[in-house]
Every structure is written in structure tokens, then in C-alpha cells.
Amino acid sequence: EVKKNGKNGYQFYTGQLNAQMKEKIELEADLRQAIQRNQIFLDYQPQIRAGDSQMIGVEALVRWNHPTRGIISPGVFIPIAEETGMIYELGTWVLREACRQMKEWHNAGGPLIPVSVNLSSQQFHQSHLTEHIKGILKEVDLQPQYLELEITESMMMDAAVSSSILHKLTEHGIRISLDDFGTGYSSLSYLKNLPIHKLKIDRSFIRDITVDQNDKAIVATIISMAQHLNLDVIAEGIETKEQLEILMKNDCKEIQGYYYSRPLSADEVEEAFFAPLRIESIKL
Ligand code: C2E
Ligand code: MG
Ligand code: MG
Ligand code: MG
């Protein structure tokens, strides 16, 4: 009986693995066509100044509208893009589209705020990255201070390499934000030498902050450290008023999370930018 169960279990397991592999291979093939077929698009999540609830930036978040599977999240297809080398083409599309859209909003009289774009490790290490991004900014005529790149601590492992890349980017006027801060394993010493503008406190420290004293201590320490190092700091994943209150009490001035807004479509962002103006002009 044991044998029989074992055999069945084994067969079931391989069946599942095969199904997973098949799905991945299919997605991989579909992803190759996705850009050309206009299935890739960006949502934008507002970044808010807690003091006066003003929008101070937006983070571009990539999505894939798959013809049969519907909207697929980046957590699923970014790793596939990275494994297959498609990340360069995809990343370039994201950078260009985010910058183009921001310029269009600026031109239309929207707020002069920056767009944050997530960079994968492979993009960060691609040769001539700064020249590449400079080209995109020039093409869409966006000034570099309106582009913020979100990178992670794990990309800072080789201090000499990351220092050289970051200096080139920031000398051109591009802003740098450290995403998912606190979850990496790299030493903090890079913070004193590298040209970084902002720390983004990872969502995992925020989730239980109302009940977990350790999370609260870590978050308070990150905020205080950022202030002493003269860095901006933003908390991500704020979902409730109680979480917001703790952040504000600890002097965190910038907030990103469902409490203020989930990621919005480009049309919804436009609405948020321009709808109040429209209402006012109707009144006139
Ligand atoms: P991230 O850069 O840390 O982005 C924040 C993620 O948290 C987004 O998920 C966002 O929708 C989600 N989020 C924001 N506020 C809340 C909240 O209050 N509660 C909860 N539970 N979640 C919240 P999303 O859009 O699924 O993106 C996941 C990750 O995929 C991103 O994490 C980023 O690492 C990666 N990603 C997204 N777009 C790109 C891209 O264009 N290029 C690259 N390389 N990676 C991207
Ligand atoms: Mg991010
Ligand atoms: Mg993050
Ligand atoms: Mg993340």
C-alpha cells in the first residue's frame, strides 16, 4: 500500500511540475510578442506627502494584459523576462513609456512631479546605462530630475561597480531611490558614500506595525537614519489610518499605499490631475 501511495504521489507530483513548466514555456513564448501586440501597459501609484496629502510623485508599475489569462502581475512575468533576457527590451519600453507619459502630463499642465521607474539588476548593470537613459529622456524631452530610478540593496553588493554606475546616473541629474529598503543583506556602509536620494521602507515592516514593537522600532530607526544622512524617506504599503498615524508620529513625510491610492490607470491619474480644474472651469 505504501508503494502504491508513493507511486501515485510521485506521478501526481511530476504531473504538476510538467503543468507548471508548460505554463511557463507558454508565458515565455507569449511574452516575446507582448510588446509588439500592445499588451504591456503601465499603472501609476501616487506617492503622497502626508502633511498636506499632495501628490509628490508616481511610481510606474508594469502590467501585462494577456489575451486569454487577463492581467498578469509583474511578480509573475518580470522573473521570466529576466531569465530570458527579454528584460532589456521590456525595461526600455517601460522607461520610455513612463517618461513619455510624464512629459505629456507636464505639457498638459499637470503637476511637475517625477515618475519612479523600477530597474531590474540586469538593467542596472547593462553597459552604457546612463547613455541609454539619456537618449530616452532626450527623445521624449523630459528633464532628468523628473525621472527617479528604483533600485534595490542587492544591486549595491559590489560597491565599486555600483558606485561608478550611480555617479554617472546622478551626475546627469537622475534621482535614485532604494526600494524594499531593509530587506537586503548588504552592509549599510554604502549609504555613506553612494549618491542616493531616497530610502523606500519595505512593506513587510509596515504590515504589522500597529502591533509589532520590533517593526515599529526598525521603521523608526530607518526614518531617523535617513534624516541624519540627509536622505528622503518614503514608506510603502500603508493601508490603514492607524499605520499612517504611526508613520507620521515618527516623522515620515512621504507615503505610498492603498490607504491613499492603489495603482491607477493613466486615465485615472489624469482624472486626479485635471478633474478638479474641469469642475472649477464649469463653475466659471
Ligand atoms: P515594488 O517596486 O516594491 O512596488 C510596490 C508593489 O506593492 C506594487 O505591486 C504595488 O501595487 C504594491 N502595493 C502598493 N501599495 C500597497 C499596499 O498598500 N498594500 C499592498 N499589499 N501592496 C501595495 P506590483 O505592481 O504587483 O509590483 C510588484 C513588484 O514588481 C514591484 O515591487 C517591483 O519590484 C516589480 N516591478 C513592477 N514594475 C516593474 C518594472 O517596470 N520593472 C521591473 N524591473 N520591476 C517591476
Ligand atoms: Mg518600486
Ligand atoms: Mg518596494
Ligand atoms: Mg517589492
Automatic annotation (TrEMBL):
Gene name of the record: ykoW
Full-sequence range covered: 528 to 811 of 811
Superkingdom of source: Bacteria
Location of the EAL domain: 24-277
The name this protein goes by in its record: Signaling protein YkoW
